[in-house]
Amino acid sequence: MNSSSSLLRAERLTLAVLLCGVAALALSDFVSPFYWLLSVVAALFRLWRGPEFKLSEMQASLVGWFGFVWVILELFLGRELVVAFTDFLLILAFAIVVEAATPRNHLHRMLVGVFLVLAGAVLTDSVLYVLPLFAMMWSLWRAASCLYGLNWQGGDLALLPLRQEMRWMLLMMAVTGLLFVILPRFEFHSLLKAAQPRMETSGFSDLVQLGDFARTLDARIAMRVEPVDLTADGVADFQKWAMGRYWRGSVLSRFTGNGWQKVVSKEQFHLGRGEDFVAGGGESIRVAMYREASDHAYIQLPQGLIRIHDLPQPVRFDSAMAVQFAKAPSRRLRLLMDVASSRELAVMPEPQGWERSQSNIPDAVRSWVAQFSKEGSGQGEALSRVAAELRSWDYDLNAPIDAARPVESFLNLKRGHCELYATMLALAARTLGIPSRVVNGYLGGDWNEVGEFLQVRHLNAHSWVEVWLNGRWQRMDATPAARSGLLEISFPTLEQLWESVKLGWYRYVLEFQNSDRVNFIRALWQSLRVYGEWLLSGVLATGILLIFWRYGKRLRLLNKRKQVGSLWPELDHWLTRRGVVRPPHVPLRSAAVPEGVNHDLWRRFVRQWEAQVYGKEAVWKKSDLKRHLRALLKSY
Description:
Blueprint: H1 3-26, H2 33-49, H3 57-76, H4 81-97, H5 103-123, H6 130-147, H7 162-182, E1 207-209, E2 221-227, H8 232-242, E3 246-252, E4 254-255, E5 259-261, E6 268-271, E7 277-278, E8 285-291, E9 301-302, E10 305-309, E11 315-318, E12 323-325, E13 333-339, H9 363-370, H10 379-391, E14 394-395, H11 406-413, E15 415-416, H12 418-431, E16 436-443, E17 446-448, E18 453-457, E19 461-469, E20 472-476, H13 492-510, H14 514-577, H15 599-613, H16 622-635
Parallel strand pairs: 14-15
Antiparallel strand pairs: 1-5, 2-8, 2-18, 3-9, 3-16, 4-5, 6-11, 7-10, 8-13, 10-13, 11-12, 16-19, 17-18, 19-20
Helix pairs in contact: 1-2, 1-4, 1-5, 1-6, 2-4, 3-4, 4-5, 5-6, 10-12
């Protein structure tokens, strides 16, 4: 095969390497589709039209320099350095896709493809990243094999069959896994900062208008929670703990007439990175919460929270136990929490003045609450009757609430969403002289049967009320029970399987830290101590069986050579009688056609001879050889 035909065959392989890198980076939310689509369209057009669709080396260099200047301009316009660098790589990828096919061009494609895959490892957290990664490993291996001997006389090396290359792919995967475990981790997310796309939410801000929160059926995952103890008992205890639990987010205390506002307390507390947030004590179970990157900084605190271990970022909190990161995290975070089975609120300070304020409460609400107050009954009993009345109304996400007078509109319609029920209950409590505040967070979640963890979605967002009764803060929820059952998934089993795969990717790949490596090595050492004898016995048994198998194979080969060796003199004697003298080192296919034998039948005889000598066919006996030779003479 000559060099030009080798380049043509390498064309598809090096384009595959480059497209694997582009695909890895396309999975990131950072990259504009324009940049990676440019390279993909150019590559497809190149495959369609062939090498005739090309730019000269000088023209491709000009495209690369244009990309460099463009990226410098992006930096001046405020583009993040890491993202601007990936834009440059994608423009460079376009340039080398359309460059004329030369050995150097193919090398450029492979190098840029590798850089794009490495950039994708930083900029994407999708589990789909493994697809272009493994495709890259395979394509890179075959492209390198194809290009290895391009400049040698006689062309390039032939590609090995896929079945033979699989053993090398398995070896590469094993080495990759080993390097993943032993190499140290580096913190790079600080480079991304505000460039990280965050999930948009509503209701988790310091000022919330009625109607902004928990009105849309958004099935996206807000957080995943799993037990650290993955034994059957540990999972069962966790499931019992998790279902129907409240997750506390923002606390809003001032009613504005159209919504709620957070009041910043003078008493603010701060904790640094690596410190523990402690809310209580007692017996607990440990859970891991994977919080998705979102546009708010609140940490959702579950009922019964005791401690958050090793905070990944600095936090601040106040006396109302609303805990926030100093800045909204730019990536998914894993939080280890100790939680108790109790569903009671933690002990919190007495109410502030703004939690008693009755300003902006509509007169219609005061009149409506008055009917629940009876002589001789306490404030708590009256508030319980208000809550019972509210639970008898209808839950409706699409209730036509008047934005100018939302509370009065809800009072007339007697149907609405959770935020309106919480508002009405909080205002009723204040009308009765009971301090109150509204809490926005999440309620419940759905259990993933495949992965055995809790999935909390945005449609689980919920509002409830905390009231000061009997000398402590107590939770009250007046939203009708009809709120449950809102989740509709077309293929729930497949969805649970996919979410389990993603959680495994987050847990064992993205969140694999130096401490996890130590724990992995410790667990491996403990397993070796426990099962070491069995493992050693299995290795020895396997080695012995392998030795016997190789020895038996060698004996079969020697026996076959001995049998074939007895046939060669008989065949050479027959060839000599028909005018053909074959030297011992010359294979039969190189010998001349004997006299009196048909050419085509001789070639078929040679193939049959080689199949039984070198292949897996049974070795002929002398009688078999004589029969074949007689058939050659009779057929002529």
